[in-house]
């Protein structure tokens, strides 16, 4: 099922039970533009969340996660969460909810050897891979798959069978992202695999904080406290895994968010400066020119 608008849970007569019952029967895709939306408490199926413009906020496991263009989040089956789009900025969201039996079949296919699939082609629907609820980078192969899916949806090309084909390959990419975490964790400076895995998990928490609290006055002590890593360990291991320091990573997050606001809103530069966590307009302009080679207003004139 395909929707181009988000449901209004607060609308008079909205049947929440009927709405969520559809998620057990179909793969469901939302490709919607909205300036406001919220769902305070939902327990859903395996799902993929990203935005093509703007920001969408999720509450997962008592953590606040901001999804911005170029990032995505995977939520597990039966995962409780909340989601919000703040009033004011037009946001285009893309969410895919995978029916449990469909996801189970794709995961079974992706994780088994071909010879095993010949002997056991049909999955146990109760077995679903557990994904880590952290923000991931949206790499080019997955971007291409999503573009193909959107094109097929907008042109009604091939019907439901064609859409399911796209979803199979998208799920394979999500499984690859999950498996790549084990590869990235090898860059953690630790001997025991279990220690590396735990350190990597905490580093991902630190990275999520940078993406989701960029507008605040973040310091290393705050990031250290949330991720349960000492400041020296945080800096050392963050650099080893992500090839940059937390401070530099935060600066990149802030300037990318500022560039998006410049391109897609008419908000004044001084507002963007405060909302993206810069101390003053001068420091914002210096950081922006270092990243993009031009002053902020030049980018806005170019996009006008």
TrEMBL record:
It holds the Pfam family HTH_18. Keywords: Cytoplasm, DNA-binding, Transcription, Transcription regulation. Gene3D superfamilies: Homeodomain-like (1.10.10.60). SMART domains: HTH_ARAC. GO terms for molecular function: DNA-binding transcription factor activity; sequence-specific DNA binding. The keyword tRNA processing does not apply. Residues 204-302 form the HTH araC/xylS-type domain. This is AraC-like ligand binding domain-containing protein. The lineage of its organism: Bacteria, Pseudomonadati, Bacteroidota, Cytophagia, Cytophagales.
